[in-house]
Amino acid sequence: MAAKKYLVPMSCPDINKDDKQAVLETLETNYLSIGPKIRTFEQSLLDYTGAAHAIGVNSGTSGLHLCIRAAGISEGDLVITTPFSFVSSTNVILFENAVPVFVDVDPRTGNIDPLQVKQAAADITSGDPDKLRKWLPRKQINNAGTLKAILPVDVFGQPADYDLLQETVERHELILIEDSCEALGAEYKHKKAGRFGDFGVFAFYPNKQITTGEGGLVITDDDGYANMLRALRNQGRAPGDTWLQHTHLGYNYRLDELSAALGISQMKRVKKLLEKRTQVANWYNIKLDGINGVEKPFISPDTTKMSWFVYVIRLDEKLGRDKIAKKLDAAGIPVRPYFLPIHLQPYMVNQFGYLPGDYPITEDLGKRSLALPFSGKMTESQVDLVCRELSKCIKD
């Protein structure tokens, strides 16, 4: 069956002739993997973020998983995280048989609520079984391990509230893994996303701020973590190992040279790419004014630079998000629900016994949020079209 043709693409990577040439030139070399391009790409992210180490990997999910492994998080350990995210931020915890401890989110930003994180950490580490029980999944209550880490997500390109999160991390001596897969270039109080934790992770899928096709990268200031991350991404080969020696149980999470070459080219114009996305978001902000029942994205005053990954509105519950989405699709406008609550995914319900109502803010946002077509390549006339069709669908 042929794919449906839409009037506007849901997303579109911003690829120019220099990007294409960079990939073609790499094809003419002897290095398609484990070559000089990955090192150059990593250096571009070091220069951009100011981190001490950058480790390129084949996806943001791979990067997050390596952070869990490098941090020593294992079976039964507890990790506080958010149920309002793409599933990979939770899956990487499950890969190591650790336990995600969900905390609900701020209703305005959709980011994890730092005050609830503070309370959860205090209760879990208190030694009081009754306090512990209120935070654990139903099917995990009698098998609680040790709280090891917090994994916040910078949702839709807006950093979480790191001042309060870092207070909790320091008080309880926890590890902070910052999922900035959606937030390259964002800033919280003038400090770049990815720089608040023991680890920061970025992703470069085609709809992200920059793309390598598939790919991701971890930044850290810790030499020991960096060495472990490099070993784990490369089949567990530690420094000094020969090609067939493997000190650790590792993975093939390497970023290939073609992807790295594209990333190098994209990073040369990252400022322009972010500006183009901001322009599209600004058009939406203006043109959505006056459309009844539409709530535009909220940007916290602490977000001194927003990095627009997607443009997500919230619809009045009375309108029926799914009903509006179907009307828009019929009119040739693609849209997506962002996000479906992780705790209500079938495999999470089966494993942990979650029920509707467990995280009411996340569930409310999951019912009302709608991602509109978005990319840095969108024109003002395309934004006009989307907003006109949305207004029509709401009025009909």
Distinct helical segment count: 14
Order of helices and strands: HHEHEHEHHEHEEEEEHHHEEEHEHHEH
- The overall strand count is 14
Radius of gyration from the alpha-carbon trace, in angstroms? 21 Å
Strand content: 5-15%
| Strands side by side in the biggest sheet | 1-9-8-5-4-2-3
Shape: globular
- What is the mean predicted local confidence, pLDDT? 97
Largest sheet at a glance?
A: 7 strands, mixed
Q: End-to-end distance, in Å? A: 30 Å
Structural class, from helix and strand content? alpha/beta
Unreliable residue stretches: none
Percentage of residues assigned to helices: 25-40%
What does this structure look like?
With 396 residues, the chain is an alpha/beta fold. Helices cover 39% and strands 13% of the residues. The strands form three sheets. The protein has a seven-stranded mixed sheet with strand order 1-9-8-5-4-2-3, with helices on both faces. Strand 6 and strand 7 (191-192) form a beta hairpin. Helix 3 (60-70) packs parallel to helix 4 (88-95) and helix 10 (270-287) packs parallel to helix 14 (380-395).
